[in-house]
Predict the 3D structure of the following.
Amino acid sequence: VPDMSRERRRTADWWRKSDLPFGRVQLPDRQLQYLFDASVRVLYQHRDIVDGEPNFQPGSTVYRGLWIHDGVYYIEAAAMLGDTSSARRAIEGIFRFQQPDGRVRVMFPIEMQRETPMLVWIMNRYARIADNRAWLRSSWYRVVSAMEFVKGMREQTLQDPLQPYYGLMPPGFVDGGIAGLTADYSTVYWTITGLEAAIDMAMWLGESAREAEWRSLLAELLQSYRTAAKRDMRRDKHGNLYLPVRVADTSSTDAPQRAQWAICEPIVLSSMFPPNDPLVEGSLALLDSSCVQGLPATLGWMDGGIGVWFAPLYGLAHFVRGNTDRAMKVLYAFANHATPHGSWAEEQMPKGVSSRTTGDYPTTSATACMLRSVIYMLALEQTNSVELLRGVPSWWLKPGSSVGVSNLLTRFGSVSAAISVNKGGRSATVSVSSLAHGDADDAMAQYTDKVNVIRLSLASLKLAGFKNRDGSELDKEVQVPWNQTLHIDVRK
């Protein structure tokens, strides 16, 4: 039997000296910082080397293996934290599952139609974050073949106008609370998200013919979606408008919130929903009404259980729609369901009801969502901007506190931003610096274009009572050009 105290010290020393991406985010809440750092650790504890390539796994128990739906979030988190090498190699590990017709199929023999557009999305996400256009060009044929497969699958649905999924996507496995094969809106959402990513990549590479082709396909799919959604939308007992995840769902016994994580993903990742969209507003209200201990219940597989790892998706959906306070409450409710080791069960029953859990423990999906939630709330990427520090609540700005990001990678470049309050709590400093991605082709210089800016939120400082040095009121937001530094001194 080894000396356990010595082994514990050795293990802790290994993690402290590792080159893993710690230190990119600073939070004033010590417990939240602990959970964030623990999530970085768990992300890499569950990264196995499979066929010579790193594979971020959902966990070490039930679902150990490659699950693309969860995996794209693991890869994105690693890339944003600066580990673009592991992100690229993990994507290349998925390449071995792409078939000659372009289809990505990991969950054989199960049909999961959204695996293919998910690969397209994460390819774009990595290439943009890493500013690796050369890699994207060398892998472009994979994007093209994937989109050809997606196009062909949709064309299959156009052969029979009487099918409820006419113009959408064929039936497949949904997961996350819905068993069996069914035509579903999650696949449609991810197909739209993948198409948007493919269009973005085509623009970046100057592939104008492909861009035009995919824009046309996207418009057609959106029209089919809106027609089907109008037919299938319902209202819950509170009058909230929502869309069951199964296409043409006729059930009357399933909980309305079941698998409604599905709509939260396109709210965050796509541009398909306009501001104040009634379906978005109704769906978030539906999830709000289902919360137990601050998180939606009966969202996944467990009746009455809390869908722990899905919950941050719901919180981020609130955040991108401008509901910052609600998003912060969801983040803390999610944090409050962590174990002392800084990890989560995938789903669990509320305390006092049952001790049952389901899925992986610990689950990397929850840890990745912790990382993504905090990062997005501190640095939210929009079409032409990065919105910094909007997710900082005013009550974080206590005497001696600091909050911010350091060399965080975005699609536009790396960015650092921080708010530091002095020990007396009467003054604070705000600093921003950035380094935009370069682009050798001036015609494609999207990152240095003046329309791309950093939007720094000062709303939390303003709400906490801080003003400019001359006593004037702070603006709620200031714009900072890329590659320029900003330093603001404020006081109460």
The first helix runs from residue 4 to 17.
